[in-house]
Amino acid sequence: MSAKKYTILIIPEGSHQVRRFNLRRSVLQWLAGVSVVLLVTVGLFAVDYFRNNLDRHEFARLKKENRSQQMELQRLVASLQDLQQEMVVLAQNDAKVRVLAQLSKPRSDTLAGVGGPPEEEGSDRFSALQQQIDAVRQAIDLRRESQEEIQGFLNDQRSLLAAKPQGWPVKGWMTSGFGMRNSPFTGKRKMHEGVDIAARTGTPVYACADGIVSQAETAPGYGKLVVIDHGYGYKTYYAHNSKIFVKVGQRIKRGERISAVGNTGSSTGSHVHYEVRRNGVPLNPRKYL
Ligand SMILES: [Zn+2]
User: Fold this and answer.
1) From ligand 1's centre to the CA of 195, what distance in Å?
2) What is the pTM for the complete model shown?
């Protein structure tokens, strides 16, 4: 290819006319250059076209995905609102129970003031959602605290009820009431700090409430005495027993047998002298029978 000029012959079939082109080498080189540039350009366009096509598909897919995520988010918002609604109902029930239990109002309820779907766009919308989730969580914590308080209160009530003396310590008949009376021993006016219930010697004596035995011994005047401490300031005394079946420190349930009726101490016959004291002050046991 060192010639300066080239001749291209074009011979149509079935014709004798021959076309002849004389081309200089530089022209040929220029034509080759242009062809290469054209090819590269077409190639680049093709690549670009296919890439755009891919992007279009990806875009459509993302759009669809975005739409379904939006719907998912709306569902979440709706169920969160349901939750808030339920928390409001729970808070109302809680308040009612607290009124019944005569407890103070619970700490400030933030949930009642929060509401409505988040209307902001994008990340604001998510942070609003997060805030609402936090509010629900806080409301749940409040309810839990309140429930624990109510539970504690009910437990206290139950122990108070179990500690309050109730019923007769022995099957028998009352021979002497509570209050001022003439002493059967000295004949002088004297305070009778309990009630006397007559029964046969050996008849079982039962505890009138839950508690702990604080005394089980012979005491002046009382004879064989059992004292039960019930807490909340309550104590009960069972005197003149013939036998004691319990020990100091022993836990006692209401209705448990603690002793047997007798005639020990300052007694004129077989009976139980029964006292109820609150903070050391003798109360009329009739109110607890
Ligand atoms: Zn008495």
Assistant:
1) 5
2) 0.63
